[in-house]
Amino acid sequence: MRIGELAERAGLSRDAVRFYEKVGLLKGRRLANGYRDFPPETVEWLRYVRVAQALGFSLAEIAAHGATLRAAEDPAETLSALLRAKLAVIDARLAELGALRGELAARIGQPCPFAPAVLTGPDLL
């Protein structure tokens, strides 16, 4: 199918399809007239890409996962493993943000909130 039909069926703009092709997420063949031609399964792949982006996966991660999923004996389990790994990353980031929040909250109202915490003792100010 040509790029216009693909874009319409996937709910994307032609520019988005071109961008995904440029970054390596899609590979269309060129017809003799120069038009791009994509296989029908590309529609489902683009829908997957959009959902994966909405779930916080980068385009690089999606590209790597695509190869992993295509090679998997059990794609559903492989996808579940990828989701569990993403959850672990998010949990770690939440812990980091919680610690940062605590540090910021502790500095509110301090005479010099940007001084290192070890220098805020009464003898050092």
TrEMBL record:
The keyword Transcription is assigned to this record: yes
Highest taxon listed in the record's lineage: Bacteria
InterPro entries named in the record: DNA-bd_dom_put_sf, MerR-type_HTH_dom, MerR_fam
Keywords, alphabetical: DNA-binding, Transcription, Transcription regulation
PROSITE patterns on file: HTH_MERR_1 (PS00552), HTH_MERR_2 (PS50937)
Residue ranges of domain HTH merR-type in the record: 1-68
Signal peptide: none
UniProt KW DNA-binding keyword: yes
Name assigned to this protein: MerR family transcriptional regulator
Source organism of the structure: Cupriavidus malaysiensis
